[in-house]
Amino acid sequence: LFGDEEHKVLILGLDNAGKTTILYQFTMKEVVHTSPTIGSNVEEIRWNRIRFVMWDLAGQESLRISWTSYYSSAEFLILVVDSMDRERVGLVKEELYRMLAHEDLRKASVLVLANKQDLKGAMSAAELSGLLNLTSIKSHRWQIQACCALTGDGLYQGLEWMSNHIQ
Ligand code: GDP
């Protein structure tokens, strides 16, 4: 069942959101497999016999410059959000809707990771969902998942959702 198919995933989000930590968590677990030859910001992860090729666009100002070649054929976007960073939720929202409007991403499913749930005062997934107005999104499949990249809590529920939404 889809055993050898490759599924392209883009990990996006503002600086300091936890993108690198999340990619690290995904690749260091026993259940996953990483390919060291691909490159430092690209990792291959196997989950439920599905190969996710994850591109961490960290440090590239993600959508502010043209990353069209990276967008093309991406099936999933993982938007990592620092749930402590209330000041920049507006900026996150801007990025999100800019992504959703991008032609090359029209078929992509969106997983929002409400990261840093271990910190006191972090926005809950429900609160963040409201601030990002996720229920208004009709053009893409989406899901929001609370997580803590430091412990890995919630990350596998995210992967599980992705593996259930392979198109
Ligand atoms: P990136 O810029 O999006 O790649 O973010 P990083 O992965 O480099 O993380 C930015 C900072 O946030 C680092 O100091 C991480 O240790 C910290 N961080 C990431 N995830 C979590 C989390 O779930 N909880 C806490 N408390 N800190 C986190």
Automatic annotation (TrEMBL):
<keyword id="KW-0547">Nucleotide-binding</keyword>
<dbReference type="GO" id="GO:0003924">
    <property type="term" value="F:GTPase activity"/>
</dbReference>
<keyword id="KW-0460">Magnesium</keyword>
<feature type="binding site">
    <location>
        <position position="37"/>
    </location>
    <ligand>
        <name>Mg(2+)</name>
    </ligand>
</feature>
<dbReference type="InterPro" id="IPR024156">
    <property type="entry name" value="Small_GTPase_ARF"/>
</dbReference>
<keyword id="KW-0342">GTP-binding</keyword>
<dbReference type="Pfam" id="PF00025">
    <property type="entry name" value="Arf"/>
</dbReference>
<comment type="similarity">
    <text>Belongs to the small GTPase superfamily. Arf family.</text>
</comment>
<dbReference type="InterPro" id="IPR006689">
    <property type="entry name" value="Small_GTPase_ARF/SAR"/>
</dbReference>
<feature type="binding site">
    <location>
        <position position="59"/>
    </location>
    <ligand>
        <name>GTP</name>
    </ligand>
</feature>
<keyword id="KW-0449">Lipoprotein</keyword>
<keyword id="KW-0479">Metal-binding</keyword>
<dbReference type="InterPro" id="IPR027417">
    <property type="entry name" value="P-loop_NTPase"/>
</dbReference>
<feature type="binding site">
    <location>
        <begin position="13"/>
        <end position="20"/>
    </location>
    <ligand>
        <name>GTP</name>
    </ligand>
</feature>
<feature type="binding site">
    <location>
        <begin position="115"/>
        <end position="118"/>
    </location>
    <ligand>
        <name>GTP</name>
    </ligand>
</feature>
<dbReference type="GO" id="GO:1903292">
    <property type="term" value="P:protein localization to Golgi membrane"/>
</dbReference>
<keyword id="KW-0519">Myristate</keyword>
<protein>
    <submittedName>
        <fullName>ADP-ribosylation factor-like protein 5A</fullName>
    </submittedName>
</protein>
<dbReference type="InterPro" id="IPR005225">
    <property type="entry name" value="Small_GTP-bd"/>
</dbReference>
<dbReference type="GO" id="GO:0046872">
    <property type="term" value="F:metal ion binding"/>
</dbReference>
<dbReference type="GO" id="GO:0005525">
    <property type="term" value="F:GTP binding"/>
</dbReference>
<feature type="binding site">
    <location>
        <position position="20"/>
    </location>
    <ligand>
        <name>Mg(2+)</name>
    </ligand>
</feature>
